[in-house]
Design goal:
The chain has 271 residues and is of the alpha/beta class. It folds into 2 domains: 9-121, CBS-domain; 124-270, Alpha-Beta Complex (Conserved hypothetical protein from pyrococcus furiosus pfu- 392566-001, ParB domain). The protein is built from 10 helices and 11 strands. It has a 5-stranded mixed beta sheet, sandwiched between helices. Strand 1 and strand 2 form a beta hairpin. The longest helix is centred in the middle third of the chain and has 15 residues, at 128-142. It is elongated and about 70 Å long.
């Protein structure tokens, strides 16, 4: 993602899109929908060209042998890969459509963006602005110079600074990694006074690294804030006190929801 750019559809869309042909029949497509995991419909394509979209609702009153081109929606709302994710969110919200096919300038299908993808784009997003604020805070509090880098980091070299992650949110982060949607980590490179070796502190992305460990991923993209000289950071002290040395030391909590979920539940209980 470009430093000065707003998040785009291309950053969050699913690129491996399942499609159907206009010549497929209703019965076959209905079976695919029923047997699929989370698919309520499919883009209808001719080669790579998008001709329409067929949803489960479109199939309800159709005969089993009807071809899909007869029942599909042709007046299609689509997104462009360079469209801002917030604009795509407005289209989804106002149209009531759950998924938007993403097409390039030639009308070729290049992905699909769902309401769930839009929601994920707004949650725990490691934006350059967020990283810049953290860097500025470190400079102001500790009076140390710092610079930002974008690089790949090995997960076995990271020191976590958070003691636990939540299973329900971990499922979402696992999905993101499996579908190429995960945001970069935020890491602080705090040089050690002895030997000149760095101490990589994980500042943001604990659910993501725990999900990566699940999937056997060894490296991840990261925004790295490199400090010019060693600093005694509070998060490093937390890691020492909690005996956090590796990702394996982060506890996965499966008996409680994420605090935001708990808050929502309490609000509902009071109504």
């Amino acid at each position: 993602m470009d430093r000065d750019a707003k998040p785009r559809v291309r950053d969050y869309m699913t690129r491996d899109v399942q499609t159907v042909s206009g010549d497929d029949n209703v019965a076959d497509v209905a079976l695919r929908i029923a047997e699929s995991d989370g698919h309520g419909g499919f883009p209808v394509t001719n080669g790579r060209k998008v001709e329409g979209f067929v949803s489960a609702r479109d199939l309800l009153l159709a005969d089993d042998n009807d071809p899909i081109f007869k029942v599909m929606t042709r007046d299609l709302v689509v997104a462009h890969p360079e469209m801002r994710i917030n604009d795509a969110a407005r289209v989804i919200l106002r149209s009531g459509i759950q998924k938007l096919p993403v097409v390039d300038d030639a009308g070729n299908l290049v992905g699909i963006i769902s309401n769930a993808d839009v929601i994920r784009s707004q949650i725990e997003r490691a934006t350059p602005e967020k990283v810049g604020k953290l860097k500025q805070t470190l400079q102001n509090i500790h009076g140390v110079g710092a610079r930002e880098e974008r690089r790949t980091v090995r997960l076995d070299q990271l020191t976590p600074t958070q003691t636990k992650v939540y299973s329900d949110e971990l499922e979402g982060r696992t999905y993101e990694l499996e579908n190429g949607l995960a945001e970069p980590l935020v890491v602080i490179d705090n040089p050690r006074s002895r030997g000149g070796k760095s101490h990589l502190l994980l500042a943001d992305g604990h659910h993501r690294v725990k999900a990566a460990q699940r999937l056997g991923i060894e490296e991840m993209d990261a925004y790295v804030i490199v400090l010019d000289e060693p600093v005694d950071l509070g998060m490093a002290e937390t890691a020492r006190k909690e005996n956090l040395e590796t990702i394996s030391d982060i506890e996965e909590v499966d008996y409680a929801h994420h605090p935001l979920v708990e808050t929502t539940k309490r609000l509902q209980d009071r109504e």
